[in-house]
Amino acid sequence: MEVKASVQLNTKQLYEFLMRHTYCCFGGVVGLLLSIGGFMGFALVVNEENISAAYLGVLFGIGLLFTVIQPLIVFRNAKKQSRAYKKYPLEYTISERGIEVKQDDAEGSNTWENVMKIVSTKRLIIIYTSKVHAYVIPRAALEGSMEDFKELVKTYCHASYINI
Q1: C-alpha 9: how far from its chain's center?
Q2: In the chain, at which end, N or C, are there fewer CB atoms within 10 A of the end residue's CB?
Q3: What is the pLDDT of residues 113-143, one digit of tens each?
Q4: pTM of this structure
Q5: Could you tell me if 91 and 103 are in contact, meaning their C-beta atoms sit under 8 angstroms apart?
Q6: Which of 91, 20, 21 is CA-nearest to residue 99?
Q7: CA distance 73 to 78
Q8: In angstroms, what CA-CA distances link 68 with 10, 31, 36, 62?
Q9: In terms of DSSP H, where are the helices of 24-131?
Q10: Which residues in 71-107 are b (16+ Cβ under 10 Å) and which e?
């Protein structure tokens, strides 16, 4: 059995993946808590008489850091990365051997033993081969072959976390 998918990731899909990757880890949660703390600190002291404008600015800036600034940076990065996929789409071949991917003249592969985790969102399937490397496949690219994909994962993948 073999599943083939041609993937041309757009900015929206990359942004969804990058935001999930950024905020669904310990550092992302800590960053959000820090920003919430900054906003709470700002709200608590904004009406105090002897608080300097610089102190208020720092608290407000900390609040913006992971709630506004970081998502804008992630969007800019997604926009940059999506340009590469417009010119050269990724060609995935998923089989009992593992996952093979080709883009223009470059190619790579991973066996099922290298897959650490598979995560599914409403629009994406994310196959992690390390903490920082993943194959991102839009669900639409697997339309018509999703059941075959699930069967391959069920049969050959022994990752610690699988959610499809």
Answers
A1: 12
A2: N
A3: 999 999 999 999 999 999 889 999 999 999 8
A4: 0.86
A5: yes
A6: 91
A7: 9
A8: 22, 12, 12, 10
A9: 26-45, 53-64, 70-87
A10: eeebbeebeeebeebeeebbebbbeeebbbbbeeeee
